[in-house]
Specification:
With 562 residues, the chain is mainly beta. Helix content is 3%, strand content 49%. It has a 19-stranded mixed β-sheet that branches. The protein has a four-stranded antiparallel β-sheet with strand order 1-4-5-13. The radius of gyration is 30 Å and the shape is globular. The N terminus is likely disordered.
Amino acid sequence: MANGNPMVVREGPLYSNVQRQLNFVDTFAWAVGVHQLKFGIDYRRLSPNGGASMNYIAGQGPGGFQMLVLGNVGVIFVADKYPYSVNINNYSLFAQDTWKIANHLTLTYGLRWEINGSPKSAISGQPLYPVQGIFDSNPIALVPGELWHTRFGNFAPRIGVAYQVTTKTVARGGFGFFYDLGHGNATGDGSGTDPYFRTNFTFLSPPGVPFDLTNAAFQPVPFSTAISLVSGSLTAIDPNLRVPVTMQWNAAIERELGANQRLTATYVGADSRRLLREDNILPPSLLVNGNQPIVYATWNGGYSHYEALQVQFQRRMSHGLQALVSYTLAKSRDLASSDGTGFAATNVNQIVLPPLTPSDYDIRNSIAGAVSYEMPAPVWGRVGNAILKGWAIDGLVRASSAPPINVTVGNQTGFISYYLTLANVVPGQPEWIPDPTQPAGRALNPAAFSLPPAGEQGNYTRNSLRSPYSVDQTDLALRRRFNLTERVKLDVRAEYFNVFNHPMFGAPGLNEPNAELGIPGFGKVGTTTNVALGRGGAVGGQSALYALGSPRSAQFTIKLQF
């Protein structure tokens, strides 16, 4: 629609998605001497449903709006989606024993059996259509069958121990396996690709034809398992897919300090295997006239590792004062921090897994403190008590070190297939350059990064830079409860967020500058409000009002309870 004054009209629903869930849990407990036995079952049934929909876009070329009023259009785009509905069943059986070996020693151990089934079609006469030819040597085609094979050997042992070292010191430790559901993007992406999502282009030459819904251009596309090049994508899942598993462990020492205070130090760790990743496969056999459809290939190629030292001080309510202060020193690494951040290649055999790099949420140092104090009322008689008694003040302080920054660039194959890749590092160029317009006095250097060749990853090490901005926020609240009657109570609360008005910014932006949307451009922070702080590689900006990183603000709340 490149000529004249383009006008676009859209009709029909884009999406019609429903998610239903049934969950039944039952447990049975039995005490036998020094043993506390527990048995249970957990059944979950998920039923995502993408209903049928038809959407068309009519665009007017030369003549603009007046031609559209007369019933003529220049271009028609039709998108047709067939219903996609599946049932996913998850079964869990577990047994656990809490064994009090001695007065100062307790052992808890158990076993959980997980059966996480492959999705099954919920529409009679319409099976699921996996894509073959990506994880095997067969020709690429859509064939009826199950998306992957259900496994029946997912056993998850768990054990925990608590030992009272002295009357004021307790040591604890634990280890266990935890299985994920294992679906990730697989079921959701499948509903938006062949054969369920079909498209049809109809190009009409000016002056066009009457804008009539009975025209053949608006009829549903016939359902077909033939690969449609205009839809632009397929979803392939490894038929030997296994659900991800995480091993978790912890060790803690807890010490009482006086009658109302407690100090706890904990080491925690987690090692996740067989995580799902989704790579962009660009098979040459599907390339037609420069149009290269993407095959989103999901398989068990992810791995992550987490370790942290957590220190917590807690003071129970005493003389009107209670407090909780915690500090975490952590390190989080993975191959990718979401299912859909894989590589681009012509086949899965070309995918070389990267080394462990910092996660998007790798925050090395964080501290949080909460204090609540019920202020004593002066003895000023009955009237003074009525005015001043019962007031309390709450404080919350949060601070953390800077999040990582990832640098990616957009790449395109053909006129439909678009994906993100890591950038190439330009030798000799500094990563940061002075910029007096930025709060930190510096910005990322656009000349330090370049676009890698199509289908290749750049040599930039993922999340190897750190944002110059961190989190440092203090919130306060003043509250009181008025007991109007025995049953009627009035709660009054005034809250102040970021009371010191400390400016906090997200990661420097990736996008092209856009003054209207508040996007400052690559390597800079702006004033957009749709980005949370601490997200690696996000577009730059402050967070929304009342959220972490917002400018100073306040709110007043009155709640009547009866």
